Amino acid sequence: MHENLLDTSGIAFIGIYLASLLAIGWLANRARKENSLKDYYLAGSSLGSVSLFFTLYATQYSGNTLFAIPGNAYRNGFVGLNVAAAVMFIVVVYFLFAGRLNELAKKHGFVSVGDFITWRYDHKPLLIAVNIIGIITLVSYALGNFKAIGLLMETATGGIIPFAMGIIILGFVMAVYESLGGLRGVIWTDIIQGTLLFLGCILLFFAVLQLGPANGSQALTDGFTKYFSSGFQPASFFSVVFLVGIGAAVYPQAVQRIYIAKDARTLQRSYYALFFMPLLTTVPMILVGVMVADWIPGLDAQQSENVVIFAVGEIAQAYPAVSWLLILYLGAAVAAIMSTIDSALLSLGSTIIKDFWANRDNSREVDLHRASRTTSWVLMAVIATLAIVLPQTIWALMIFKFELLIQIAPAIIIGVRNPTVSSQSVLFGLIVGCAVAVLLKLSGYTSYNISAPLGIHAGLWGLGANLFGVVLWRK
Hints:
The chain is mostly helical. It has 22 helices and no strands. Helix content is 78%, strand content 0%.
């Protein structure tokens, strides 16, 4: 493979793509209806099913889809099917509370997750606890993805765009379209980013299947048989399904997208389509990883994270006519990562402005709107700087995020469905759940290792203690 993966035309394509995002931010700014928090953070709160589907899809799938998932499949075979099942389970969890939460958001004008917590419980300590977990999750999520995009740009350009410069350039682009267009700008860019991601996954799978190893189909058959005959571990499999499915459903950015749907029926239509997308996104990337493991063996753990780049590079060298696949893959990867970062930072901004600033300062809506734009720039600058200067161990935060995030699920899901549960019982359960999860982690059990008790993740043990604490307090 060439050291410089992107030639001049490839770099030009990425440049045109980034320029289009800036143009979208400008257009989204022109389309705003008012200078308000609702318009900036919720795009007017009247999104249709098609736009809602694209923003949910683009936000739900990050750079992990194109790097970590095929890399894991390369090393461990079909074990990654638990991630595909988990992403489908997210939609099942949505159906437990999203419709009702959308109705409440429309009635009471929720902007942030904290707005629901305040309305439902009116308990400051619980609001602070939920926001702390949300902030830790969003910051770690953005940091990890910023590092990923810096490494991607450096690798793709053969060092022409260094790690730090890649983060600065893409951070600047995101800050522009996010500060100009708010969530409306993010949603419009999600349509482009989601389309690139979908096309990238499907076309890459067929390219590897048809142009890659001659025995690709046989490698899939053998790997599938081996996994379900000797490698399938039910406890570990369903532990991932429940941990990710429940945790991702209460991501702050996911909750905000429940708010912005036009109505509950719009949510349902979007969720029905979203349910099947892992079969067209996650699963193809797992299959690519399995096929390439048989085709290009011997990659170490770090190299396997770039297994798709190796595979597409080999195909492009053998078949120059399809070298555009490499550009498409890198474009899809940039799009997937950017759609994750911008959504996370916009949700983080809404928490800061709505839950900490607006509630303490009786500022006018126009002043809060202006502060929101400034916050977008500040957060982007701070997180980008941290991603550049902090050591690579920051990736450990990404592994831990679901263990904590899942602990706020009772406050949201039970709070929506059960009007009698008290703020004190929910707070007690949350504290107990976080304590159990953290203690298990510190005891030496690892988040994605079968050495976890009975193969079940620390976060799920914490959630069980959390729910027991809620019931115990009520009694």
